[in-house]
Design a protein that fits this description.
The complex is a heterodimer of chains A (119) and B (284). The longest helix of chain A has 10 residues. Chain A has 119 residues and is an all-alpha fold. In chain A, helix 3 packs across helix 4 and helix 8 crosses helix 9. Chain A is built from 9 helices and no strands. Chain A has a domain of 75 residues: Dioxygenase LigAB, LigA subunit (Protocatechuate 4,5-dioxygenase, Chain A, Orthogonal Bundle), CATH 1.10.700.10. Chain A is flat and about 45 Å long. The longest helix of chain B is centred in the middle third of the chain and has 16 residues. Chain B is of the alpha/beta class. Classes of the chains: A mainly alpha (119), B alpha/beta (284). Chains A and B meet through helix 2, helix 6, helix 7, helix 8 and helix 9 of A and helix 9 and strand 9 of B. Chain B: It comes from Thalassovita gelatinovora (Thalassobius gelatinovorus).
């Protein structure tokens, strides 16, 4: 029996429950993103992303998701949004930019969607 | 003896840190949010608490997935606000109260909450934004109290249940009230309310659920313990699970509280932002 066969969760549309299974899957990616708390690490990534990803042992799916700056792919590869936010920070992406990318909108459209919920 | 005088809740959205740094208090986007704070300032000005217990959730600065405490309590003389990676201005260290911390830690473990004690704990926006919101000018404000951070895990499931969070608060109350010094303590419950940053459901906000939580938490927090964790994710959004901090705060206030003030505004950044001032019984 695999860990994923032990059903602890319900399915919620458009939502990944970041549990033990995801935490193991995404460990290398999240560990790299955690390092981005420090400016020296952010600079090292920008200077040579491939070498930096290799140093943390990212798998090919994780590397490709980072190269593409594709947030949904990073989540599918085990990324946790709190750590991915630090990756996004390197490229000065706001949480609205990240939300827009994941929902297939422009940032302006996404901001509009947020505002409408206040009506 | 130590006395808990009340509880304050607020969202702790990082963008607020930038808005404060840029003094955007009268900006049309920010005004309805910042207008929620003056009644809290007045109350704090009147009561001048000595210590703030700041219940927040770390967002990947103080803790990583290598070791993830479910409940962690600061036991340091001061708490450093480090670089979080995306450019909120860093603040000077926040003075702690290590003696009270260890008294609380002793009390919590005696009451069977097996917490993680932290002699070093870099604090992120979850801790710093509320300090800035409640004590204008933060370090420049002579009334800013000593602070003790308590962090609960909402990064990785399994997260604590709502009942466990409320019970944590109840044990925290006893652990504080048994402290022999005559100090006034305020409890901060920070984070929330509904929001989701990740996935195709990013941008989800739920006014109806937030309103229900803000009503029930005043007089009937036990009712909220019926909400399962998966229901909380579904109704509050993946990061709306930060409502657990509000439950921990509420547990520490005792059975009866007076809601002196509340404010709710959508959106601040991606979030339904809620602020409350709850006063404990026997405080005037």
């Amino acid at each position: 029996m695999e860990l994923q066969d032990l059903d602890h969760h319900v399915h919620i549309e458009g939502t990944t429950i970041f549990d033990g299974e995801m935490a193991m899957k995404g460990y290398a990616l999240n560990k790299m993103c955690f390092s981005f708390n420090k400016a020296v690490a952010r600079d090292a990534y920008l200077a040579d992303p491939e070498a930096y990803m290799e140093k943390f042992g990212l798998n090919e799916d994780q590397k490709q998701a980072c190269r593409d700056k594709n947030v949904l792919a990073m989540i599918a590869a085990g990324g946790n949004i709190y750590y991915l936010a630090k990756f996004a920070g390197i490229f000065k992406l706001s949480v609205q930019d990240v939300g827009a990318q994941q929902t297939g909108m422009t940032t302006e459209e996404f901001k509009e969607k947020l505002l409408r919920q206040g009506d | 003896m130590a006395k808990i005088i009340g509880g304050l809740t607020t969202s702790h959205i990082p963008a607020v840190g930038n808005a404060i740094a840029n003094e955007m208090y009268d900006d049309p986007y920010w005004k309805p949010f910042f207008d929620g704070y003056p009644p809290v300032w007045e109350w704090l000005d009147k009561h001048k608490p000595d210590v703030a217990i700041n219940i927040y959730n770390d967002h990947g600065l103080g803790f990583f997935l290598d070791k993830m405490p479910t409940f962690a309590i600061g036991a340091a003389h001061e708490y450093v606000n480090e670089d979080e990676g995306w450019g909120i201005p860093q603040l000077p260290p926040f003075p702690g109260d290590a003696k009270l911390s260890w008294h609380i830690i002793e009390g919590m473990v005696a009451r069977e909450f097996d917490i993680t004690s932290c002699q070093e704990l870099p604090v992120d926006h979850g801790f710093t934004v509320p300090m800035q919101l409640f004590w204008r000018g933060a370090h420049a404000n002579p009334d800013m109290p000593r602070a003790i951070p308590i962090s609960a895990n909402t990064v990785q499931h399994p997260i604590p249940t709502l009942k466990r969070a409320l019970d944590f608060g109840k044990a925290l109350r006893k652990s504080i009230e048994s402290y022999p010094e005559d100090i006034k303590v305020v409890i901060l419950g920070t984070g929330g309310l509904s929001h989701q940053l990740d996935g195709e459901r990013a941008g989800f906000i739920n006014r109806e659920f937030d309103t229900y939580c803000m009503e029930k938490i005043i007089d009937d927090p036990e009712e909220l313990t019926k909400i399962t964790r998966m229901e909380l994710v579904e109704k509050a959004g993946a990061q709306g699970t930060e409502f657990l901090m509000w439950m921990m705060m509420r547990g520490a206030l005792g059975d009866n509280v007076k809601a002196l003030h509340k404010n709710y505004h959508i959106p601040i950044s991606n979030t339904g932002a809620g602020t409350m001032l709850l006063e404990c019984e026997g405080v005037d």
